[in-house]
Amino acid sequence: MGTSLTVERGLVPQIGDLPMSGDESHRMRRRSSPDRSAELFARAERVIPGGVNSPVRAFRSVGGTPRFVARGDGAYLYDVDGNRYIDYVNSWGPLILGHAHAEVLAAAHEALAHGSSFGAPTEAEVALAEEIVARVPGVDQVRCVSSGTEATMSAIRLARGATGRPKLIKFAGHYHGHSDALLVAAGSGVATFGLPDSPGVTAGAAADTVVVPWNDVAAIEAVFAELGDQVAVVICEPVAANMGVVPPTARFLQRLRDLTTAHGALLLFDEVMTGFRLARGGAGEVYGITPDLVALGKVVGGGFPLAAFGGHADVMAQLAPVGPVYQAGTLSGNPVAVAAGLAQLRLLDDDVYADLDRRADRVLDGLAKVFAEHGVDAQIQRVRSLAGLFFAAAPVRDFDDAKAADHQRYAAFFHGMLDRGVYLPPSGYEAFFFSLAQSDDDLDATVAAATEVAEAL
Ligand code: KE4
User: Could you tell me the residue ranges of all domains in the chain?
Assistant: First the structure.
């Protein structure tokens, strides 16, 4: 499933070291400097912590001035200084059809004309739930929420309520949103209590979370040997993509499925990133593993605040108002978001995934060739079209490997590409998101830009 390509070592430039030869005519047009972005960023920092509404947007991992966006259109982002970028962030995954897709926006406009929110059931919510149930392995029933954080937080409470057990197992380097029980670092030893991974998370909130290394069968088996009948749920990103992209090793997911089944624990796939992106049925379909619970987000909301969690009917029946596990939300299943999500899902049939994979091949094979030709150590790791780039000499198998990769070189590469009109994720711990709006010219221009940047590495 995952592929990684190792190429030779090269020198590491610093940000801004990337030389531009005298004659730029044959090179990608350089961007005009981000003056208006810098002005807005200074203004923003006075009234918003870090000037952003989500930390990764502040460019702290790569340095420099975050680009304030004026608009998105198809494959492109336009910043407030008039620069155009080929976008490989796509709002961190939701915009699989590209920005401002006509049919998605039309559906949202149509819904909006009838009102923005009712706090009462609507037919469209039923249609969206039916669409999700039809696509995602293991989902008999589904409930909509407003963010991926809410989806995983609710699914974990449901798993604990349904099993009557306290322990939650997660993997180091996996990100499932910012609810307290999930902002936990690995404690020392195998099955000791988790440790808060952020101020404000109390020892009590972290106490029932156990963190183990990804792709480490012995570690997860040891936790089950020690805590087996206390484990409510194992949560994972079936393809880790928040430490860069680190696919599961062969049969690791099957081992999780077998261990959770043997010990009466639930398996929760966090498919907020992978759902409706890897394939029609997400990672569950790709790996042929059916979890007990699934968290979904991003693509399913069509670019609006909508996420969901679902699973086996017996488990979902434990949720209020049917069962005793409480979960609720004022804007859950918001009609405008539902309309956009439904419109987007209905445009995603199996053919689009082959097309998305082809686009990924065109860029990633090109990048691998560029790095090899320029003697740069790089690992391009992917599952279908979800891909990440590590500047490392060997494949990245877990969070320790990911941290050991050369993030300074990633920052230099990021800025070299940004200067040439390609907007990659502003962190080496993220993933590239392809969209169906990207043309072959866009993909080839991406590789051409990488060639210019790699020449400086
Ligand atoms: P949100 O609460 O941000 O909607 O979803 C949380 C979440 C849950 N699960 C997975 C697998 C996720 O990737 C995410 C959020 N992803 C990040 C990008 N790595 C969102 C970007 C951000 O935090 O601004």
Answer: 15-96+351-456, 103-345
